[in-house]
Amino acid sequence: MQHAVGAPLPPPQGSGNGPVGWTHQAQHPGHPGRPGPPPPPQPAPRGAGWTGPAPHHAPAPVSRETTGHIQLPPGGPVPLPAPPADPGTGTATLAVLLIGPAGAGKTTVAKLWASRRRVPTAHVSLDDVREWVRSGFADPQTGWNDHSEAQYRLARRTCGFAARNFLANGISCILDDAVFPDRPVVGLGGWKRHVGPGLLPVVLLPGLEIVLERNAARSGNRRLSDEEVARIHGRMAGWYGSGLPIIDNSTYDVETTARVLDDVLARSIASPPAW
Question: How many whole angstroms separate alpha carbon 229 and alpha carbon 29?
Answer without folding.
Answer: 103
